[in-house]
Amino acid sequence: EAQVTQNPRYLITVTGKKLTVTCSQNMNHEYMSWYRQDPGLGLRQIYYSMNVEVTDKGDVPEGYKVSRKEKRNFPLILESPSPNQTSLYFCASSFQRVLSYNEQFFGPGTRLTVL
Amino acid sequence: DQQVKQNSPSLSVQEGRISILNCDYTNSMFDYFLWYKKYPAEGPTFLISISSIKDKNEDGRFTVFLNKSAKHLSLHIVPSQPGDSAVYFCAAGYGNKLVFGAGTILRVKS
Predict the structure, then answer these.
(1) A87 close contact with B: CB closer than 8 A
(2) Which of A25, A52, A55, A93 is deepest in the core (most CB within 10 A)?
(3) Alpha-carbon dihedral B21, B27, B29, B34, rounded to 10 degrees
(4) Cα angle value B21/A97/B65 (rounded, 5°)
């Protein structure tokens, strides 16, 4: 089944404790991205990657890191999480590199709480 | 600065009637528009899209209308069904820039 998977689905952590949210897609998609969803703000892009070893900042990259060492995986790293990073996170992938003209496939989401 | 606005946080509609969800944008560079639907505890799924060279696109019960002069698009669902109850996000973009609205919660009552 074609899908985007994220782990963990739920995470409660404390300020400053490094964490990684994994994302994997099995559709051989070139483009992957991370979003956060906050009430009243919709989905905001954190980072994106157009191919292996190619990543770039989205609209809200502060406090996050990503890597793209393999085409299928795109982990999101929070080196020192803070409470304002409490949010619902989505990973997404897309077949083509020009984002806005193509539908994205989203993972099920990761609910992160930073105390 | 919210470039894509969905001014109605929620909408309630009777089963069988039309649902109209609205979206306004400010950036005249946007040339492609998409709607996504999201159920609780799931990721958004693509619903329908339209490019700026068109003013209407239909897919079954779903039709998207684009009014470029007003910088406004709308999603019509006819007839509405209880399974359509979800959060609907509009998104607008050009090139690799894509901006989502805050979403509208649609409740279809049976």
Answers:
(1) no
(2) A93
(3) -20
(4) 20
